[in-house]
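Q: What residues go here?
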C-alpha cells in the first residue's frame, strides 16, 4: 500500500543528461517513489513525447501539462499529501491552484 500521493512540478520534463536541476528533480522523484509515494509530475510547459517523458513514465510516474484546466482536474480527482515544486517560477504558477483545490497538501 502506498504511503500517499506526491505531486512534483517543474517548468519542463526533467532532462538529466542536459542540466543539473533535472538531475535533482529526478533524484527527488526516485526518493519519493522509494518512500512508497505514488508520484505525479506536472510541467508548466507543453509536453513533448520524447525519451525524457517516456523515461519518467517508465518509472511509473504520471506526466501532465499543468495548464490551469489540467491542474484543476488533477487536484480535484486526487488528494496529494505533498507537493514538491522545483524552481520558484514553477511554485509561483502552481501554489495558488494547489492552495485553492488542495489546502491540506504540504508544499
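A:
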Amino acid at each position: 500500500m502506498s504511503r500517499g500521493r506526491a505531486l512534483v512540478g517543474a517548468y519542463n520534463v526533467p532532462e538529466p543528461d542536459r542540466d543539473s536541476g533535472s538531475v535533482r528533480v529526478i533524484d527527488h522523484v526516485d526518493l519519493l517513489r522509494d518512500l512508497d509515494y505514488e508520484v505525479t509530475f506536472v510541467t508548466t510547459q507543453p509536453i513533448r513525447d520524447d525519451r525524457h517523458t517516456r523515461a519518467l513514465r517508465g518509472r511509473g510516474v504520471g506526466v501532465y501539462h499543468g495548464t490551469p484546466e489540467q491542474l484543476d482536474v488533477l487536484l480535484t480527482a486526487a488528494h496529494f499529501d505533498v507537493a514538491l515544486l522545483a524552481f520558484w517560477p514553477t511554485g509561483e504558477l502552481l501554489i495558488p491552484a494547489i492552495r485553492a483545490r488542495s489546502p491540506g497538501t504540504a508544499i
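A: Context that may help when evaluating the design: The chain has a mean pLDDT of 92. The chain is about 45% helix and 20% strand.
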